[in-house]
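PROTEIN DESIGN WORKSHEET
SECTION A - STRUCTURE
LENGTH: 191
TOKENS:
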């Protein structure tokens, strides 16, 4: 099915089109949910909410921009709302915590794989992880993040800075990056 056929079928509440939409986009959107979630079950709950919203709001898509981008925005906002609803975003973390993160020592292949980085990001406290995901991965500005999370723009900036510092330490402890030599080049990709 083409994307347009899927869209038109979903507008008509056709089960086959809805199934196709879910099969096509759920793996990517589960990955987005997983980056925000506390565990896989939470990510799956978020994903379920995402597709309920998509199917109930599909008539609002105006063919301005990519359909997948519209789905991704719904996913990100659903994840944030889920965190707010469950009061998980409000977990506070001291910067001192960054130096005492317990990381399992294990053999890590020399090539940095996306899955390993995602797992390291998931070790961050929820507030740090959320801001890092929104800024470095989803591309939102600190002003937009502040509005979404109902925090000050400066709070978003400091949460991001602390998240990067903590992520550096985790990546070094897991031997995914080396201390000074490699971390600068690798972290340049995080804006």
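SECTION B - SEQUENCE
RESIDUE ASSIGNMENT:
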């Amino acid at each position: 099915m083409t994307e347009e056929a899927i869209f038109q079928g979903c507008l008509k509440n056709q089960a086959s089109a809805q199934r196709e939409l879910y099969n096509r986009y759920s793996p990517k959107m589960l990955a987005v949910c997983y980056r925000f979630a506390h565990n896989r079950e939470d990510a799956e709950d978020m994903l379920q909410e995402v597709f309920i919203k998509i199917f109930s709001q599909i008539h609002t898509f105006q063919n301005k921009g990519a359909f997948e981008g519209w789905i991704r925005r719904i996913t990100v906002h659903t994840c944030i709302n889920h965190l707010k609803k469950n009061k998980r975003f409000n977990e506070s973390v001291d910067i001192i915590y960054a130096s005492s993160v317990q990381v399992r020592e294990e053999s890590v292949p020399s090539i940095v794989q996306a899955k390993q980085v995602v797992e390291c990001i998931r070790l961050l406290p929820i507030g740090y992880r959320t801001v890092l995901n929104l800024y470095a991965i989803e591309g939102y500005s600190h002003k937009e993040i502040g509005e979404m999370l109902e925090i000050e723009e400066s709070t978003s900036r400091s949460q991001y800075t602390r998240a990067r510092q903590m992520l550096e330490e985790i990546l070094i402890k897991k031997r995914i990056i080396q201390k000074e030599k490699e971390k600068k080049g690798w972290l340049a990709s995080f804006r």
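SECTION C - NOTES
Confidence is low (pLDDT under 50) at residues 90-112.
The first helix runs from residue 3 to 11.
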